[in-house]
Amino acid sequence: DLLEKDWGIDEVPTPGKSPRQQVTTPVLRRSSRKRSMPPVFSSMFTSPPPLQKKSREHVKVPFHPVVPPTLLTLPHCAISRLLLCLDVDSLERLSATCSYFDQMIAGKFLLTISLPFPVGFIKELMDGDSFEKKPLLKLSCKKTRDDYNTFLDIPDYSDPSSFHKLITSISPEMMDYLLSSQMSLLSLHKLRELDLVPDSVKQEDRLLGQRIMDSYSNFDCSLLQHISRLGSLRCLTRLDVLVDQNMYLEEFMTELPNLLELGLSILTRPGLSKHVYLHEYIPRLEAVVAASKAPVLKVTVVAETRRQVSKVFKNNYVEKLVLTGPCTFNVFPVMGRLKEVVVNLETSLPANNCTYWKSRIDDRGLHRAGLCCVNIGAVYENCPNLERFMGVEVGTVRRWTFNKWNIRMKKKFYDDYLQQGGAKEMKAWAKTRWVSRRPVLPENIGVFN
User: What is the 3-state secondary structure (H, E, C) of the chain?
Assistant: First the structure.
């Protein structure tokens, strides 16, 4: 009501009139006659010609396609960070893809080279007036048996030789001089990979003899000592070596804090005595494994003396364990961070693949997953983070008592056995192909007696 009164304040009362007295006000009508626009405004309001209107309607806006993101569109700092995650072989393949990566990788680094230097590399040094010491990323010593001539332009001047002959016949003093003189031409402060495994571990269809193994080990040990004196062992991220029962690598393990992958190829002398096997070979092997800080451990057994003795691999850094060797290798893993176990076994002999202890001749066609090379019962409570074992998902099995855990594991591995073509019933399969009781952790791990 107050608003109505306020709105009515400005209203002026008009006296009332009779209909006869009201005067009608005339209403103006808009004229329908067309008038011409003055010439002053005609230029301002004229419509564009029809052709101009049509051209405006069909004007095409340029379309810029969205370029899909590639590795080359990343910032330089991001690319540099990604390259640190690749091994040297991948870097070498990447540098061959385009000029950008060729300049970024091969233009700044010497990717890989062999020791002793190949004859072709020495000839390049001789032909050049100067050379640039680029940081070397990978150093290898493959001990090749391929013949070479020292003087390429005079092939008849000297007899053909090979690096295998050179390494096995050189004296220790001459070996040190050779390594020191050739490594002085290299820049090793960014060395990332070292590969000391020979191209072949056989000689005339036989495994290398102990004399040749000693020569190889002496050369590799001397090479590691030279790199250690330069302080470049701490830069290594990948190391592959061939070792025997003497296991010379043990003295260098504390100088390898940044290893990402350690590869051990084992070739022991045949018929090791019980004393050497138990008090030298096994403790040294266990000590090397325990001292490694690499998340990936690869062990390849070329040959070793067969003994039914467990090898305890105790380590708190290994996340992936890759084993290649005989069914009787007997690894007992004690690894708190271990997530995956990969076992590569012999599969080239369809009727005699499995050589596990006391296996029947008519039951060797398929390997015993969970027994061959690594005993699955050993991982109970010793590898709490294990997720995959020989391709079988085991991370979902809860860790109750060993018997309950073993029953659930047995079902998983029996299903894997059936998928591989096995035909035994579960009871018969478990009798000869499964863990009967919990393995006992051996004492004196990695200790000389």
Answer: CHHHHHHCCCCCCCCCCCCCCCCCCCCCCCCCCCCCCCHHHHCCCCCCCHHHHHHHHCCCCCCCCCCCCCHHHCCHHHHHHHHCCCCHHHHHHHHCCCHHHHHHHHCCCEEEEECCCCHHHHHHHHHCCCCCCCEEEEEECCCCCCCECCCCCCCCCCCCECHHHHHHHCCHHHHHHHHHHHHCCCECCCCCEEECCCCCCEECCEECCHHHHHHHHHHHHHHHHHHHHCCCHHHCCEEEEEECCCCHHHHHHHHCCCCCEEEEEEECCCCCCHHHHHHHHHHHHHHHHHHCCCCEEEEEEEECCCCCCCEEEEECCCCEEEEECCCCCCEEEEECCCCEEEEECCCCCCCCCCCCCCCCHHHCCCCCCCCCCECHHHHCCCCCCCCEECCEECCCCCCCCHHHHHHHHHHHHHHHHHHCCCCCCHHHHHHHHCCCCCCCCCCCCCCCC
Under 8 Å between Cβ of 326 and 367: no
Cβ pair 287, 250 in contact under 8 A: yes
For residue 42, is pLDDT > 80?
Answer: no
Pull the structure tokens for residue 425: 């019933």
pLDDT higher than threshold 80 for residue 282? yes
- Which of 62-66, 249-253, 333-337, 370-374 has the weakest average pLDDT? 62-66
421: left (phi over 0), alpha (psi -120 to 50) or beta: left
Q: 0.90 exceeded by the pTM?
A: no
**Token reading at 71:** 């590795």
Judge whether residue 223 has pLDDT over 90. Answer: yes
Residue 222 has pLDDT above 90, yes or no: yes
Residue 431 backbone phi and psi in degrees, to 5 = -70, -35
